[in-house]
Amino acid sequence: MLSRFSRFGLALPRTLSAPPARFVSQTKPSSATGSAAVTELHRREESSDHGEVSPYVKNPEYHGFSDDPVEDEWNMKVGFFFGVSVALVIGGTYLHYLPEAGMRSWARREAEQLILLREKEGVPLIGENYYDTNKIILPSSEDK
């Protein structure tokens, strides 16, 4: 029996198929009992197997999400859908629309607009006094 959420790929703990609960008393043993009392709520089912069976034996197509084969398959499909498809599509779209690092294309467009403007006005692209001559420090003739 599947829980109503397992068809949506949500793994919820199953309370009906859980092993019987055992409680060990934490109180000090009285002289009558002699040891900590173990109380079983349900009668222990006799089992012929010795230990747990590998999930691969129960379900040859085990994906590692759940012991139930149907729930395991749904959880695998939902996990891969969100983990691969959505992450690649949304992540790729996000990376594509990030602004350009360094703004190189913006700088080139701005330079092309400035060149067109200066050609239209008849001004040289770069003036002969591009740098302020008062701020340039030239080495003296003695240093050579």
Automatic annotation (TrEMBL):
Residues 22-64 are annotated as: Disordered. The keyword Isomerase does not apply. It is a single-pass membrane protein. GO terms for cellular component: mitochondrial inner membrane. Residues 40-52 have a biased composition (Basic and acidic residues). Keywords: Electron transport, Membrane, Mitochondrion, Mitochondrion inner membrane, Respiratory chain, Transit peptide, Transmembrane, Transmembrane helix, Transport, Ubiquinone. Its main location: mitochondrion. InterPro entries: NADH_UbQ_OxRdtase_ESSS_su. It comes from the Eukaryota. It is found in: Mitochondrion inner membrane. The chain crosses the membrane at residues 78-98. One of its GO terms (biological process) is vasculature development. Residues 24-36 have a biased composition (Polar residues). Belongs to the complex I NDUFB11 subunit family. PANTHER family: NADH DEHYDROGENASE [UBIQUINONE] 1 BETA SUBCOMPLEX SUBUNIT 11, MITOCHONDRIAL, NADH-UBIQUINONE OXIDOREDUCTASE ESSS SUBUNIT, MITOCHONDRIAL PRECURSOR. Complex I is composed of 45 different subunits. Interacts with BCAP31. Accessory subunit of the mitochondrial membrane respiratory chain NADH dehydrogenase (Complex I), that is believed not to be involved in catalysis. Complex I functions in the transfer of electrons from NADH to the respiratory chain. The immediate electron acceptor for the enzyme is believed to be ubiquinone. This is NADH dehydrogenase [ubiquinone] 1 beta subcomplex subunit 11, mitochondrial. It comes from Nothobranchius furzeri (Turquoise killifish).
